[in-house]
Amino acid sequence: MRTIRETPVRMIEGEHAEYGLFRTPFHAPNLMDAPGIPPCLRRWRLKEWQHWGLLHPDVYVSIALVDAKYLATAWVSVFDRRTRRVFEHNRKAPFHDLGIPADVYDGEARFNARGFRVAIRNELARGSHRIAIDIAGRPGLPAIRGEVVARQDVTEVHPLVTALPFGPGRPFYSHKAPCPVSGTLAIGAERIVFDATRDFAILDEHKAFYPRRTFWRWATFACRDGKGEVLGVNLTQNVIADDAEQNENALWHGNRLSPLGAARFDIPPSPTAPWHIRTLDGRVDLVFQPQGARSENLNLLVLASNFRQPVGLFSGTMVDDDGIRHEVKDVLGVVEDHQVTW
């Protein structure tokens, strides 16, 4: 069982980086001080993003602001669970007004372009994140406007905070959390109302010196169990070879975080066939049935990306640190299969 440590103020001090699992997000995840990357390259090699997945009975909404340094990317993608339709607004260009905050305690992630504005006001110090969207409609794509508030109280739901090494002096930082969400999004003529007693926004805050060529597979969901407590999971497999200990795999239940072993993904060639996802410690065994997906294939010389993000339903079992077995059946969530050169 991995130990969850108290969080230092800074992630990197001199030549030393703090690695492991931590109780709260860093106030200073100062990856730009990483000793393993030449100072002249740090600005261009650090990849940063915020991704939010909004889980609602009728829709799944994916919101992402990505700073690859030489390319700014943003999208708001909607999967309508009733019609199985996926539609997406996105922007991609070198010099858009994109900002990723140094931390989530008091800062704003934003992307501003004509007809496309997303502002994420991170106020973890006050227990919330405000996501405001103002995107104009286009032929075949409805406008999306509104604001939702994701509540994050680290005493109610233990965040998953990890700092891992890709190599000597090449750190990876991730902060993930299922947050009860409220508010309204107008998607075309329809109003989608989020209820914090039922719906979740899953945060993925990410800062990392990824290798030039990398991959990851990812799965996550959040729901409430029969007693009304939060139940969710985060599972990732990536280029870290020693992932029995060095991983960001964990189970959320109530205010407890249970670290997990290495995750493995059996991904079928058919986009509609189920995935099998398990951990090598035997504590998680899930089947994911895709219902729809956003995907993208890019080749921009300096960047190439093969990306699939299916949305669908999880069923299976998970065992927490107390030995309690949790069964889930047809719970909404998302998976990813991403290979990238950047």
Name some characteristics of this structure.
342 residues, mainly beta, 15-stranded mixed sheet, 60% strand
Give the topology, please.
Blueprint: E1 4-5, E2 12-13, E3 16-17, E4 20-22, H1 39-45, E5 47-55, E6 59-67, E7 72-80, E8 85-93, E9 97-99, E10 107-113, E11 116-123, E12 128-135, E13 144-151, E14 160-167, E15 170-187, E16 190-194, E17 200-208, E18 213-224, E19 230-238, E20 250-253, E21 256-259, E22 263-266, E23 275-279, E24 284-299, E25 304-319, E26 325-341
Parallel strand pairs: 1-4
Antiparallel strand pairs: 2-3, 4-14, 5-6, 5-17, 6-7, 7-8, 9-10, 10-11, 11-12, 12-13, 13-15, 14-15, 15-16, 15-17, 18-19, 18-26, 19-20, 20-21, 22-23, 23-24, 24-25, 25-26
Q: What report would you give on this structure?
A:
- The chain has about 350 residues and is mainly beta.
- It has one domain.
- It is about 0% helix and about 60% strand.
- It contains one helix and 26 strands.
- The protein has a 15-stranded mixed sheet that branches. It has a nine-stranded antiparallel sheet with strand order 21-20-19-18-26-25-24-23-22, with no helix packed on it.
- Strand 6 and strand 7 form a beta hairpin.
- The chain starts with a strand and ends with a strand.
- The model has no long low-confidence stretch (mean pLDDT about 95).
Total domain units: 1
Tally of DSSP helical segments? 1
Strand content: over 45%
**What is the molecular shape?**
globular
Total DSSP E strands: 26
Work out the helicity level.
under 10%
Compute the gyration radius: what is it?
19 Å
Output the structural class: mainly beta
- Poorly predicted regions are none
SSE string, helix = H, strand = E?
EEEEHEEEEEEEEEEEEEEEEEEEEEE
Q: How far apart are the termini?
A: 34 Å
Give the mean pLDDT. Answer: 96
